[in-house]
Specification:
Strand content: 5-15%
Distance between the termini: 59 Å
Structural class: alpha+beta
Number of strands: 4
Order of helices and strands: EEEHEHHHH
Mean pLDDT: 79
Number of helices: 5
Strand order of the largest sheet: 3-2-1-4
Helix content: 40-55%
Largest sheet: 4 strands, mixed
Length: 189
């Protein structure tokens, strides 16, 4: 197994980056090939792997790309979406039906690009906050860690509530500014 090259809080923005050449001194990207029979082949270990093992690569921060064995098309997003689907279909989904419906509604919307960037930045911020909490809680006994986390939960919920309120206010301000701009051009709703 290769040593982990990325700290979870500083994972690469995209897992599907072109492999670096060995001559440049940078490590090459791990390549997983997907065959027509739906099997996944890890070229680094020369073994077939499961979707659960791909999830393990994600969880460990391993950078990789999934390629179609015949066409060499990048299938990384498709495989990541499959992992999310399996997780969401399991016992403890992360997204409510309302959240999923709202995400779907942004496809084709003028704000689609903004929404993707907004979600990405917020998830990055949340991941960094989670990493800092994990770092602060190192060395605590299991009992103390449980107590620490029980105290953190209300605080985190309060912070997220305040953050959501600030975001809502920002969107309302953007909407007012857009309406004023449209009004200046003689375009009204």
């Amino acid at each position: 197994m290769r040593p982990r090259t990325h700290h979870p809080a500083s994972r690469p923005r995209s897992l599907s980056v072109s492999p670096k050449s060995a001559a440049s001194g940078q490590p090459s990207l791990r390549v997983i090939k997907k065959y027509p029979n739906r099997r996944l082949y890890d070229t680094e270990t020369s073994t077939y792997i499961t979707l659960a093992e791909v999830k393990d690569l994600v969880m460990s921060g391993e950078a990789f790309v999934v390629r179609d064995a015949k066409t060499n098309d990048d299938l990384t997003r498709s495989i990541l979406l499959q992992i999310i689907l399996e997780e969401e279909s399991g016992g403890a989904p992360m997204f409510t039906e309302a959240v999923l419906a709202n995400i779907i509604r942004f496809y084709g919307h003028a704000m689609q690009g903004f929404m993707g960037s907004y979600l990405e930045k917020n998830i990055e911020a949340f991941t960094e906050m989670q990493a800092r909490l994990a770092e602060q809680s190192k060395g605590l006994s299991p009992e103390m860690l449980t107590k620490f986390m029980s105290l953190q939960s209300p605080m985190l919920q309060g912070m997220m509530g305040n953050y959501a309120d600030q975001s809502r206010g920002m969107f309302e301000q953007m909407q007012k500014q857009a309406e004023q701009m449209f009004g200046a051009f003689g375009l009204k709703r």
